[in-house]
Amino acid sequence: MAHDITARIRTERELKISQEKYLKAFNASHEAIVVLDMQTELLLEANQSFELLTGLKPIDALGHTLCELGVMERATYELMHEVLRQEGRIRNREVHIHHQNGSRLDVTLYAEPVIVNGSECLVITAHDITEQKQHDNALRESQERLNMALEAAQMGIWDWSPHTDLLHCSARAAALHGHAEEAWDGPLQLFMKDIPGKHRRELRRSFIAIGRGTQSRYRLTYSLVPENDSLRWVEVTATLHRHSDGSIQRMVGTLKDITDRRRSEQALQRSEAKFSALFQGSPDPYILVNATTQLVIEINQSFTRVFGYRTEDIIGRTALDVGFWRDAQQRTQVLKRIDPAAGLNSMEIDFVTREGLYLTCEVSSSFITINRQLCMLSTFKDITARKEAEAALRASEDKFSRAFRASPDSISISEKATGKHLDVNEGFTRLTGFTATDAIGRTARDMNIWADYSERAVLIDELERYGRVRQREMRVNGKFGQELLVSVSIEPMIIDGTECMLLTARDITEQKLIEARVKHLAYHDALTDLPNRMLLSDRVTQNLAVCERLLQSSAILFFDLDHFKHINDSLGHSCGDAVLQEVSRRLLAQVRKVDTVARLGGDEFVVLLCGMEGPSEAIHRQVQHTAEKLLAALSAPMLIEGHSLQLGCSIGITLLPEHGTNPDDLLKRADIALYKVKENGRNGIAFFEQAMQIAASERLSVETELRVAVSKCEFVLFYQPQFDALEQRIVGAEALIRWMHPTKGLTGPMGFIHVLEESGMILEVGTWVLGRACQFIAELLRQGHISPEEFSLSVNISPRQFRQPDFVDQVRHAIDSRGVPARCLKLEITENIVIQNISDTIAKMQELRDMGVRFALDDFGTGYSSLSYLKRLPLDLLKIDQSFIRDCTRDANDAEIVRAIIAMARNLRLELIAEGVETQEQLDFLQTQSCHAFQGYLYSPPVAEGDFVRILKRDSHALPLP
Which terminus of the chain has a lower count of CB atoms within 10 Å, N or C? Predict the structure, then answer.
């Protein structure tokens, strides 16, 4: 019987084709698929992806349950069946399974019951989401770290929709604007209400710029004063987000409180591209290189920040070319070790920065494909500091031990709570006398080291407050009873979990004594130990306050020793110092303890008389009496280094508060009164008067005008002829300076010479006089008016000018530069020059005299020189002072003095000339004593150059007398 099986065969063929398609799809699926019997739980089928997921070959897995294979835990399997029972299928269920290597995998399960050959089966599909879960966890952790970082940085975030004007702020951002510290939602304008108008306008301009596309983000700093709060500075950043069509979506940003630090580090700019954002925004250095050529393609900003290389330095070159690798051989080894699949993970490599510094980094590298080129992306973590710290840590114990033992200071380690010593160094023993055996296990109180035990509590309190104690001075006791002043510093430390103190103590006993001495020296004169100007000023200030409060009076007595410089120059500085010390003793002996005796320097002393009461006249008499008593005490003879000396002194006095309330002004006014005493001949007393202030001001005015006169050379020389009455001829002249004042006209030397001397301008003027006098001699010689053998021109030399080290050179230059015979120049010196450093005086005079220059001693008989000095000086001529000539015909004493001077000059074989001869009687008297040379108004007053030439031209053989 024949049956038509065509349809069956077709069906079977179609079934076979369907089965083949299913099998191909089953095995080609990227998802792991298994089929298991629901009754026995045994695996019936498993595809190749199952092997990739679990590490089990399907042939080995069939006939076993998932639990037997260790792929799924029993609890997980039962939970899966419970879901099937309740829901009939499983959709997108996350469970944990296990790989054969022991790792745990996260998968998403899909399960569907099916009937296979009449049996209930279950088809399970597993999708591996392990990497996705890891990514999600990393993202969540990153967000948590971001939130923590924002909180640590005190930053808030905000999100603003321009379409709704609705602003959302984080709790921190809301708090920055004075709102409650919780998330805030509301209009932007309400949030910005406390921002000043200027800053609000800047924010608005930035919003507009972002909206127009001219600016994608901005950073601004603004101030605000929230209600019931103080001024606050905030830094705002903003970024605009757009839809895919370019329309505005929203603006987000951050707020940061920068009140304590207005300038914040610039936030990393977010790149629009994902790779650029990760690459450029990373805080770690990144470098991208071509894996084949090793040429650098890109570096990020952190790479430049850490290593110094800029894009123009390195892009297009290899890292080896720019010297980035410290060791080229190490580079070769590293390149060999890089796994093409896994890259490089945390390898320590040494690099060189652009500035030549060495850095050790952990380097991780991976391969990526960019534009079909294999590239290597490397990131660096600078571990230089960590490596150095590790090295330092390894050496720290040895270093600490060495420093601890070798330190010259006392160092001890003790428990903070109990005070028991754990260790002490040799410096501790040297300071206190207690050895380590004495101290360890005992407290400072046990050893009676604390001079005041309560100071330990003070130290502990300071340590608690400030975290350390720095150089606190305190007193301690040594083992042998000695009391010491020490400087204590304390650092906290933890030893085996116990709070301890590292205490360093330095003996400053001697240092404090030295400081006290230095402080004393700062306010006292080193020679006499008297208060100096600074301390005197302070006492005057205090005394002024007392005078005002108690209605008392005080006085400042300003002393200057007369001719003290002569003692220094003639007897030496040691003798001068002894004189100053004796003066200080005598002054102290004459005043009360409440009074002050001070030395301002040199030979200047001040006595401050305090606490005087009574009417002004009585105060004046009391001060006058005290000043006279002090003057007498200082004038009494004193025996210094075998020399019997007798000093005079000048005293200027100001009364407090009558003459002022400023210490400096009072001292100046006492000095003005002192100057008045000197003008009147020294060795006297003068109270300050307002007229003296006026005179001092006038003198200052004269000095100012003289400085202009010196700069403009407003001086001229007049010449007074010197006549020999016996030979009836002019034998010379004296050059006398005059000031051609621009408003006062011709002014004689009495009005300004002393100012030139005191101000020092006499040096410049004296040089000019010397030069001009020599020039005039040259002109007279050239015109034939004088003979070099019979005429000499006298020039007065000031003491200060003579004392200049180059004085001889000045004279030589004046003579040589004008071609004048040296014998035509006669230098007139005073006795003040003679008695100041006699050796130097003689040396200079002799050197000039060897050149041919002649010397005359001016104003002889008015000074203090002795005959012994005169015998040693290389003089040519004595000038008899006009003060003796004036009354020589009427006063027997003056006549006798003149005779004595003439006789002495004759004995010393010196020439003579009398000055100030105004009458014939005076000349007759002089001639009877064989003194024929003279100058004075009897023959001619000082005249200008032209008039002097005319006198030379006229008949000089007869006196112009009736």
Answer: N
